[in-house]
Amino acid sequence: MSSRDDEYTEYISTRMMSLRRTAYLLCQDWHRADDLVQAAITKLYVHWTRARTADHIDAYARTVLVHEFLGERRSAWARRVSLDGQVTQARADPAGYHDHDDLLDLRAALAAVPPRQRATLVLRFYCDLNVEQAAQVLGCSAGTVKSQTVKGLAALRRALDPDPGPQPAGERKTRHG
Amino acid sequence: MDEPQVRAIFERLSGTDAPPSRVDAGLARLRGRRKLRLRRAVMSGTPAVAVAVLALSASGLVNVMPHGPDRSHPATSPPPPATASFSPLIPYAEFGWLPRGVSPLTGTTGRFSQYFTAGPKANRTTWTLAVIAAGRCHPSSGQILRQLRRGGHPVLRCATEPGHAGYGWTPQRQAPSVNGHLAFWIDHQIAWEYARDSWAVVGQSGMHVPMHPRLIEKVAAGALFGAPQPALMFPIQLTGLPATWRVDSVSFVSDAGALRARQFVLAGAGLLPTAQPLVDVQLAGPASSCYFYPGGQSQHRTISGIAAVVTHRSGSPEFPATFQVCAAHAHGLTLSIATYGDERPRAVSIFSNHLRILGPDRSRWTVHPLG
């Protein structure tokens, strides 16, 4: 293995957990999160020469991951899963890992937040990015990040409201087992 | 809904039990290399291959995270012995002193490097410990110090597999000595030569964990090397496999005092690194299920009385074919065995002819995964 590969492998091994958790918050499904991370780190490898010289390699990796998430919403994963219920179910509740009811509620609430707003919330309040940094990752203006944050918080609040109106059904998970 | 509430929600959700990672850095490298080759081919005017490859982007396979044992010792480690290789079946290092509320979680044991994590709770790693066998890193700590003093930018290279160029670490400045050994800061990690030609790296990780250099120094000073450790415990045993096959690396989890293997890789003469059989074993729960690889063809079968999913994924010039058997409920375990390429026996054969399921009862587990 080349030193390029070694550096890359070392970086991935130290950041894997963080990337997985971020991906999980974006999509609320560990297996799907792994698919996202897998795709993201493949892209990261392709661009490793540039990434390793970036001012902040974590920011670079996060950007790739978020773009992968926002991009897949329009393509592969959504199609693959929605066409095959069995796969969806198997992925949604992997071996031995159960959610408690309150966690299910939180997951469902987060899933109810539109993807771009959700990504904004995750970047701001999980990855601890400021408005400008989040804007850089999302490729939008700081103003857009601010408005997406406000909208995302409102959506999350609505979803967690004990007396809610109709909720988006798109990504609500079903529990089984 | 305010910021602290959202942060709390994110912390709560991201701290939920995560299944073992299916992300495979090796696979990412292979696919990345293929894309790079394609890109170069396109740039150099070689056309036809291009379109086909861009379409091929499947999902992730497996790889597991590490773990560690379960103790809290004062920072009085004796001088550790230098060793040129480790046993993958016995952790060579362990955390000693850890901050209150932090305990060892997971580990990965290989022949030339081992890696351990600790954290306040499962799947919330805040500390890592890597240990590398003697003779695999260069330059020496003395040479690194001299380079730093001359204003140079030394690179510590550690080859953890034969023939590898090695990991590249860039020590930035000298750190306080660790138990009398020269040490260096590498971002939020401290690296030191714990024995002659043998290196260890302790780091603090976690997105919301403030970095405390003094804590890192203390955790590093408490790390133990070569101390007697319990062997890893395996809930299954594979028997009658080719005599040249051996366990190459194990990922384990600290499970109520036992170090329970949850994934291991086999190696042997003639087995390419990309074709090493992989065994994944978890304790089954009511909702246990098998992972379906989107790129493969799966069918349900009953093997030795156990319902299983058999998956075949075709090979390509760069990726060997994959044969996988997964059983969500195999006498209390969730099992997955994968073999690659032309290697024999294949996964189905191993599952049906070479597998002894010992079950979830730890009194039946073995320290000899290959019988």
* CATH secondary-structure class of the largest domain in chain A: Mainly Alpha
* Number of alpha- plus pi-helical segments of chain B: 6
Strand residue content of chain A = under 5%
Mean pLDDT of chain A: 72
The CATH architecture term of the largest domain in chain A is: Orthogonal Bundle
Succession of helices and strands of chain A: HHHHHHHHHH
End-to-end separation of chain A in angstroms reads: 43 Å
Order of helices and strands of chain B: HHHEEEEEHEEEEEEHEEEEEEEEEHE
Radius of gyration of chain B: 22 Å
What separation lies between the terminal Cα atoms of chain B?
57 Å
Q: Show the largest interface.
A: A-B, 68 and 67 residues
**Major sheet summary line of chain A:** none
pLDDT under 50 segments of chain A (min length 5)?
Answer: 74-100, 162-177
Shape estimate of chain B: globular
In total, the number of strands of chain B is 21
- Approximately how much beta-strand content do the residues of chain B carry? 25-35%
**Rg result of chain A:** 17 Å
What is the strand tally of chain A?
0
pLDDT < 50 runs, ≥5 residues of chain B: 43-77
Q: Tell me the overall shape of chain A.
A: globular
* Helix coverage percent of chain B: 10-25%
Task: Give a quick rundown of the structure.
With 177 residues, chain A is mainly alpha-helical. Chain A has 2 domains: 1-98, Rna Polymerase Sigma Factor, Chain: A; 99-166, Winged helix-like DNA-binding domain superfamily/Winged helix DNA-binding domain (Arc Repressor Mutant, subunit A, Orthogonal Bundle), CATH 1.10.10.
Please describe the structure with a list of short key phrases separated by commas or semicolons.
heterodimer; A: 177 residues; mainly alpha; Rna Polymerase Sigma Factor, Chain: A; Arc Repressor Mutant, subunit A; 2 domains; 10 helices; globular; B: 371 residues; alpha+beta; Protein Transport Mog1p, Chain A; 3 domains; 14-stranded antiparallel sheet; 3-stranded antiparallel sheet; 6 helices; 17% helix
